[in-house]
Specification:
The protein is of the alpha/beta class. It has 2 domains: 243 residues, Alpha-Beta Complex (Spore Coat Polysaccharide Biosynthesis Protein SpsA, Chain A); 59 residues. 36% of the residues lie in helices and 23% in strands. It contains 12 helices and 13 strands. Strands 1, 2, 3, 4, 5, 6, 7, 8, 11, 12 and 13 form an 11-stranded mixed sheet that branches. Strands 9-10 form a two-stranded antiparallel sheet. The protein is globular.
């Protein structure tokens, strides 16, 4: 049982059965201190109804509440809930949807933590306590994440934080493919450049201090940006807590053909670099574009060449705009590197 107030924030888009499995794995944690908030992010099908009906089989009527994102106010919070299912009319992206839930909670209390989760994870029973106890005990940390295991191979690490290879714009997952026990043997807390948004715990005060997720990111790179914001604002660091283990579905995305994935990735890269390393973003975009072209040539053709033919038009097509960091780099030992 968590020793502090924790608000678990989950965004879902389609995949209602997967979401139900995720939420039911969280239900044993529910108490007066731990509440679950799920926002259905404008799926074009009946995902909201499927999730609601699925949860009704597990959550008592008094504990399950539903609301529209436009109708979230103090009365909804005051009524009390174990699980709050929120309907969004349109897909506004991961970070912005998390912010909707976070602002609703923060308008009513700033005591406790946000546990941000993907909807395609299954948690281990002790995952939350390990995160809360570590963040409460360590005054040198601002954001902690879980050791993420493969759903199909729960003894194998999918990701344990990441390292930003700044020169080429690569977020390199750490310890991928290693045995869980081998990574846990490295220590209880492992420092990392950034914490994956699949499982991230942050205090409500710190999250709201930096304004939450930057809403220019739709899918990718938002969690990296949040990690950098928190590190810069607090002078503290990010880490993975190895006693906290979650299982995450591994979706094999074919980056050589998935143009939509590429678009979100390129948008995230450029937005992130223009915010934090503005002198590097043209080079990083060039490297990414050349990589995609090479993939297309290897696959026998593709449309990636248009990404480099007219960089200005590409940036405009991606809907990018210049975003400045909302917090300045700190100096001394806490400076980001």
């Amino acid at each position: 049982m968590a020793s502090a107030n924790v608000y678990i924030l989950v965004v879902t888009y389609r995949l209602p059965r997967t979401t139900i499995e995720c939420i039911t794995s969280l239900l044993p944690l529910c108490s007066d201190r731990v509440r679950i908030l799920v926002i259905e992010n404008g799926s074009p099908d009946n995902s909201f109804e499927v999730i609601r009906e699925g949860l009704e089989a597990y959550v008592p009527a008094a504990g399950l509440k539903t609301a529209s994102a436009d109708a979230l106010d103090a009365s909804v919070f005051a009524e009390g809930f174990r699980v709050l299912l929120v309907r969004n009319e349109v897909n506004i992206g991961f970070g912005r949807a998390i912010n909707v839930l976070a602002r609703f909670v923060a308008a009513n209390t700033d005591d406790g933590y946000f546990w941000i989760l993907n909807n395609d994870v299954i948690i281990e029973p002790s995952s939350l306590n390990a995160l809360v106890e570590t963040l409460a005990r360590r005054d040198d940390l601002c954001l902690v994440g879980s050791l993420i295991a493969e759903m199909e191979q729960p003894t194998v690490v999918q990701e344990a934080g990441g390292k930003l290879v700044r020169s080429i714009g690569w977020c390199r997952p750490l310890h991928r493919g290693e045995a869980i026990k081998a990574v846990q043997a490295r220590g209880p807390v492992l420092p990392t450049d950034w914490v994956c948004g699949a499982s991230a715990l942050v205090s409500i005060r710190d999250f709201m201090r930096v304004g939450g997720f930057c809403e220019s990111f739709f899918v990718y790179w938002g969690d990296v940006d949040l990690s950098y914001l928190l590190r810069a604002a607090t002078g503290r660091q990010c880490a993975v807590v190895t006693a906290s283990v979650i299982r995450h579905i591994s979706r094999a995305v074919d980056w050589t053909v998935a143009d939509r994935v590429r678009t979100f990735d390129l948008a995230g890269v450029v937005i992130f670099y223009r915010r934090w390393f503005p002198w590097l973003w043209p080079f990083v975009l060039l490297v990414r574009g050349l990589t995609y072209i090479a993939c297309d040539l290897w696959k026998g053709g593709g449309a990636s060449g248009r990404l480099l033919k007219d960089p200005k038009a590409t940036i405009e097509a991606l809907g990018l705009r210049r975003e400045e960091p909302r917090v300045a780099f700190r100096t001394g030992k806490s400076r980001l590197t």
